[in-house]
């Protein structure tokens, strides 16, 4: 073990070593200080460059859109204006024409057959168009499709909104996959 201890013990310091240590410390500390400042300055330059690029992008975009033109809004497909038709004789005599969709849905639950399907469809349309309540519209549309025939599953682009179309397509896929 004595050989191992001799090998691992540090050699004795020379008498001039503390003076050299202080010189080495001054040189090392100065280098570390400079490197730290260079690193911080590099980060600051990168942040300034990113900020400048963002400002340049905003300025460029502001110049690209002339003020005179403004913003043009294009109506979505589901919000396209429908052709207004004069009220038919049935709509004048329709007892549900001014009722809220909640009441029409309750009447549909009491009705039977084809009238039930029509009332649920109307309640779904009113929930969707007047109130924007998609969950209630989906519920009514599903009840209407449950009581309807195969002809009711045909998608009619001029009559159906996107919500009802997607439910009809999903119902057709369910029926197709159930056969396989």
> What's the total helix number?
7
Please tell me what the overall shape is.
elongated
Give the total of beta strands: 0
* Rg calculated over all Cα atoms: 39 Å
Strand coverage percent: under 5%
The structure class reads mainly alpha
The run of helices and strands is: HHHHHHH
| Unreliable segments of 5+ consecutive residues | none
The biggest sheet, with number of strands, parallel, antiparallel or mixed sense and barrel status, is: none
The quaternary structure here is: single chain
Quote the average pLDDT: 80
State the helicity in percent bands.
55-70%
Give your account of this protein's structure.
- With 180 residues, this protein is mainly α.
- Among the domains are: 27-59; 99-179.
- The protein has 7 helices and no strands.
- The termini are far apart.
- The model has no long low-confidence stretch (mean pLDDT 80).
